């Protein structure tokens, strides 16, 4: 057994897994692709200040439904959609017994969103089918499920995701992009999304600092807003992308803000 194999065996016996580190050019390619898919879009903020508020294109007058897995202590996002636009939100989370807001437009199930269907989990495609059957009216997705997004996005097809006119997804644990296998998984997920969507906003959650390696900066948690490609021209802005956006707010008020590293979004760096 060579030294590398001995180290891996020792690490495994002691509860550690040693994976292959990513080459700098590989993660730079992922960031470059992210930058290339970023579009300047006119945005509005839904959900109020602080955590739970998101920036999305203002197509809400044509939206009938919101699918919102992950229920927190507030439902300001879903509450504003109901109050201002009459949008019905379907909410799912097995960690709580009910949504934090009473509203006839909030429909809750006590299940986690995942890659399978059983007593505790439901897949996104089956959840949509259960809620609205084959209703093709415009719908949006707001997903913050603390790392479970990867199982969901791996298992669901690009066709299922394309049912949404816009999506905002919080991606967790992105410091693991410095691991080759995690980078490959996330790259595959983003390429699936890119088949029908472009990025219209990104906001780092300031719950934790930026991770850095070999001069490459990666926010650990980011909220990414996507717009379906067929809607870009309708909502396209004449202004260049500029971050932070004037409507951005810190997620955690008593922590320092985190800036999105410029190579992810600034076009003149390409």
CATH architecture: 3-Layer(aba) Sandwich
Radius of gyration computed on alpha carbons:
19 Å
Give the class-level CATH name.
Alpha Beta
**How many helices?**
8
Task: Kindly report how far apart the N and C termini lie.
Answer: 45 Å
Which tags fit this structure?
Rossmann fold, two-stranded antiparallel ribbon, seven-stranded mixed β-sheet, 27% helix, 8 helices, alpha/beta, 270 residues, globular
Describe the structure.
With 270 residues, the chain is α/β, with parallel strands linked by helices. The protein has one domain: Rossmann fold. Helices cover 27% and strands 24% of the residues. The protein has 8 helices and 13 strands. The protein has helices at residues 3-13, 24-36, 76-85, 124-132, 149-155, 158-161, 180-194, 232-235; strands at 43-46, 54-57, 63-69, 88-92, 106-109, 112-114, 121-123, 138-143, 164-171, 197-204, 211-213, 216-218, 222-228. The strands form 4 sheets. The chain has a 7-stranded mixed beta sheet, with helices on one face. Strand 3, helix 3 (76-85) and strand 4 form a beta-alpha-beta unit. Helix 2 packs parallel to helix 7. The relative contact order is 0.18. Residues 4-8 have low confidence and may be disordered.
């Amino acid at each position: 057994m060579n030294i590398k194999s001995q180290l891996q065996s020792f690490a495994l016996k002691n509860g550690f897994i040693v994976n292959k580190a990513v080459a700098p050019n590989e993660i730079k390619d992922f960031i470059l692709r992210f930058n290339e898919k970023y579009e300047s879009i006119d945005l509005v903020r839904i959900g109020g200040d602080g955590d739970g508020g998101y920036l999305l294109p203002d197509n809400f007058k044509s939206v009938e439904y919101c699918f919102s897995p992950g229920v927190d202590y507030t439902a300001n996002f879903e509450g504003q959609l109901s109050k201002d636009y009459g949008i019905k939100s379907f909410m799912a989370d097995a960690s709580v017994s009910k949504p934090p807001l009473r509203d006839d437009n909030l429909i809750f199930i006590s299940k986690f969103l995942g890659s399978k269907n059983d007593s505790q989990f439901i897949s996104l495609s089956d959840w949509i089918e259960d809620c609205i059957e084959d209703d093709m009216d415009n719908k949006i997705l707001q997903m913050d499920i603390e790392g479970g997004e990867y199982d969901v996005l791996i298992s669901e097809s690009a066709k299922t995701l394309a049912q949404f006119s816009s999506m905002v997804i919080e991606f967790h644990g992105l410091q693991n992009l410095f691991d080759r296998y995690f980078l490959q998984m996330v790259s595959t997920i983003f390429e699936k999304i890119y088949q029908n969507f472009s990025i219209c906003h990104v906001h780092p959650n300031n719950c934790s600092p930026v991770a850095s390696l070999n001069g490459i900066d990666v926010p650990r948690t980011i909220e990414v807003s996507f717009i379906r490609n067929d809607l870009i021209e309708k909502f396209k802005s004449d202004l260049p992308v500029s971050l932070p956006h004037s409507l951005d707010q810190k997620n955690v008020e008593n922590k320092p803000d985190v800036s999105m590293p410029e190579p992810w979004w600034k076009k003149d760096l390409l």
